[in-house]
Design goal:
Elements (H helix, E strand, L loop, with lengths): L14 H8 L27 H5 L16 E9 L5 E19 L5 E4 L1 E4 L2 E4 L1 E14 H6 L2 E7 L2 E8 L5 E9 L2 E11 L6 E10 L10 H5 L4 E10 L2 E2 L10 H5 L7 E4 L8 E5 L24 H9 L3 H10 L1 H11 L3 H6 L23 H4 L32 E3 L2 E3 L4 E4 L17 E9 L5 E7 L5 H7 L3 E3 L4 E3 L9
Antiparallel strand pairs: 1-11, 1-13, 2-3, 2-6, 2-9, 2-12, 4-5, 7-10, 8-9, 10-11, 12-15, 14-15, 16-17, 18-19, 18-22, 19-20, 20-21
Amino acid sequence: MGRVDSATAGFEAARAVADAVLYEGYLLYPYRRSSIKNRVRWQFGVLTPRTWTLARGPADAGVAGSAETWWQQTECLLEAPADAVVDCRVRFLQMQRRSVERRTPDGAYRPVDALEAGPRTELSFDEAVPWEFDVGFSVAEVLAETREVTLRADAGEDVEPLADETGRPIGRVVRGRAPVTVLLAVSASPCQARTPAFRLRVRVENLNDTFQVEASRDEALRVSPIATHVLLAARDGAFVSLLDPPPWAVDAVRACSNQHTFPVLAGAPGRRDVVLSSPILLYDHPRVAPESPGDLHDATEIDEMLSLRTRTLTDTEKREARATDPRAARILDQVDGMPPKILSRLHGTIRSRRPVPPHDRPSDGHDRPSDRHDRPSDGTGEERPSTPWWDPGADSSVSPETDTVMVSGVPVSKGTRVRLRPRSRGTDPQDAFLDGRTATVEAVLLDVDGARHLAVTVDDDPGADLHRWYGRFRYFFPDEVEPLVGEGGDAP
């Protein structure tokens, strides 16, 4: 990995998210070469040769990095004195072609698509090598003139011999890389603001300008930085959020021009010394979900689905996945060895956007006047809390485990048995098959519009216990159930 020794500790705070950007879409489930979606890879932050790109039409000028071009530009605001120092880290992947070759009787080697080497299967497939380069500069330096630095990922070739179970040589794996050369150009200009502030511009370009325009995309990728992104860390300075700027910086933020990438504040919330400029649109202070057990090369919101599906792969499919890429093999090891506790943690969670306030209710359980103020009704005669729907952890009065809703004069809560009477219109057609079946209420829920819903498990469903453990229920409005009074139900 290429590196210049000027990195700061601030970069480490953003490394997990930056690595997720680096490998986003690198290899997709089912992690096998034979999968069609793994034959079209490298979708974000690809800086192709200039002449090759222009021969295919005008370049897109948006901030998203899914459109291929030969350059990307980051502009962001920095509050700092002119002598402040900024560290810049450029990161990208260099494509590496992995070719499998069989040894012939005369000792020569012939390219093959696949080769069985004892317990291993080797496949010809493209891999990637990560690179990062650090360049430091002062604000005063790039105010005076543009700082240009050439960054180079060198060409190379590695050979790995292959043998059978007896140790007899049967072939080799050849990994070859073409050189990737990029230009980093950094400049700055002063902003008219109440505090010393500057607009930093960081431009990254593919310097290969001699590539044949008739070449295929696969060949162009060999000389292109992939998943290109930039990290900036300020010493004695603070960056301004481009998503939520302070009033004094609004006009200056509008003047920023970000092309094929977009900078956001990185690290812990409240921190403003690190920026991640990503070809994938993010929000300020992005983070990898703490529940995520490892990189699956996709958004963490679907870690559970990917993990469960990966577990269902056959032994033959897993063998192919392991032969496709070493990172695929690590994913299989990670998922196959995942404890049930970790797997269940992936099912979901609720996070409040601010700390839950202290409970403001007297010990006798009665509402204070302030507790009841401005609580609109949900249409059933009951009051609903006025807490904003996007902050579920901020109101302790909402409790699906203990809340009660009145149905035909009967209080219904968790544990109440009901008979299902789904509506004939305006509901899920599959609910019609449950008409007349009995169910048990698992929770009383409140939606964003203040309406109540009942989460239930169907009594004769053989998977009811599993659904209850996972929290996967069927949902009905209160007027779609009949409390089972006097029929073995818990309702009085």
